[in-house]
Structure of Putative tetratricopeptide repeat (TPR)-like superfamily protein:
Amino acid sequence: MLVQKITTLLNHSLTAKQLKQIHGSILVHGLNHLDRLLIHHLITSQSDYSQPTAHYLRLILHHSKQPDVDSATSAMRYFSKHGNFQQALALYSGLQTSGLSPSTFAVASALKACARVCELNGGVMIHGQVFKYGFCGDVYVETGLVGFYAKVGDMGNACKVFDEMSERNVVSWNSMIDGFLRSGDLVMAEGCFARMLDKDVVSWNSMVTGYARVGDMEKALRLFEEMPERNQTSWNAMVSGYVECEKLELARKFYDSMPQRNTISCITMIGGYSKCGDIVSARELFDEMGRKDHLLYNAMIACHAKNGRPKEALQLFDEMLQPNVNIQPDKMTLATVISACSQLGDLSFGSWIHELYMNQMGITMDDHLRTALIDLYAKCGSIDKAFKLFHKLHKKDVVAYTAMILGCAINGKEQIAIKLFDEMMESKIRPNLVTFSGLLTALNHVGMVEESYHCFNSMKRYGLAPTPDHYSLMVEVLGRAGRLEEAHNLIKGMPMQPHAGVWGALLLACSTHNNVELGEIAAKHCFELEADSSGYGSLLANIYASAGRWDDAKRLRKSIYEKGLVKVPGSSWMDHVQE
DNA sequence: CGCAATATCG
């Protein structure tokens, strides 16, 4: 009776609440065989992927003892389709542990998942199982293996499997081409392409992308024009290629002349505009798009966040959550939003996401999100929380270390910052420009001049050229130590145009050490570079005043007032939040 | 079922 009722219900579309009730009944009455129907319902009825669905699905799979092969396989494909490869793999190993034989479908899906999450051992293990289950002659399974080895860059094994295949199809060949292109072997890819009898769009597109990736847009274009058939991906590959080599006008030309654009085309263009700071053009394209998905929102939010517009980023996040828009955010959205919070110093919103929202949406933590949170907590002074997350990272990369180093540097834990840097070096992780900013900040705060020099000079050993920001930090530490002439000489020796911050650092140092002569020089440069800021004038006025030159000080203050520049010096980003 | 174009953290 109950079984009948549930079976009927599951044939209709149901609300989340109804599903929960049904699941409850199944649990209470021990109707485990109905889980299969429930899983099937969840996977098929919901055309759009949503975090709650995935979460719920996980829950059911967890409660049911072990789903049958078909249920597990369809759930695997569901998760895989939506990028949740870990979950798909968990299901596959679930099959293993309960002694069930996977289907060829499950194997193909698992191989894909292994490739995507770079699960090298997993793929090799599955390769072994292929023999055990006698799937050797299956084109799909074997192509899956080729695809796996190609994706993880093991072209030796990819070739081995490929050569021994009794039957090959387009996908097998395309996987090989893709693998060669990924490992940078254009010649071998060209060889495959030439030997292929029946090429399809994917083959052509792969080659176009391959040329675009190495910056050879002439060849990419030639191939693009030769193509017997083009689809959106072909056009997108061209747009992406031009964006990559920063030829935005050409990218836009292709974008505009596409017969039909999709979300990816738009995301690619937005990414291009974002990289060169053209938020306005990016936003225009975004607004033009009729139907927007979460990926498009992610791209636009990231564009704002990356270009110093965290407020707009949060506004857009808010917009996507509005009932009339109602787009589910994903991990990437949250990582970007948290970074915006961190720029704003908005600890409360950021930690709300961490402590409540993620859980509510069924979004699981990953290292990207952790790193974003580390930065947030560190920037907002909760260094202990940052450390806790830092220790939970599965893999500590440059970004994570840098966030932590910078966080310690600005929270009075300079020695720990230095220790973290050493630890990072021992782990053979290459520091980058931002890492050095963090280290220099720490050294700066404790006034370690010689160590700063050492750090600054060691940058070129990593192929890094100091940016004006690094010069600023050097000027600051020298200035603090009263070595003003030396700081001035360092600026004069800069290979690039110093920005206002560099001269500002010198000016500040002159003000603490009451050096009128250098202070005037520094202030002059600051005025030239940033005429609309009053902070510099006030600093110089202070220097005059402390040197007893009251008239000069008065004259300067008067002119600042007349220009209407009455902002208080030292006004920070917090003011921009309010505006 | 499997291959091509996009996007997250300092």
Observations:
- The two ends of chain A are 64 Å apart (CA to CA).
- Chain A has 35 helices and no strands.
- Residues 467-579 of chain A form a domain with the Serine Threonine Protein Phosphatase 5, Tetratricopeptide repeat fold (CATH 1.25.40.10).
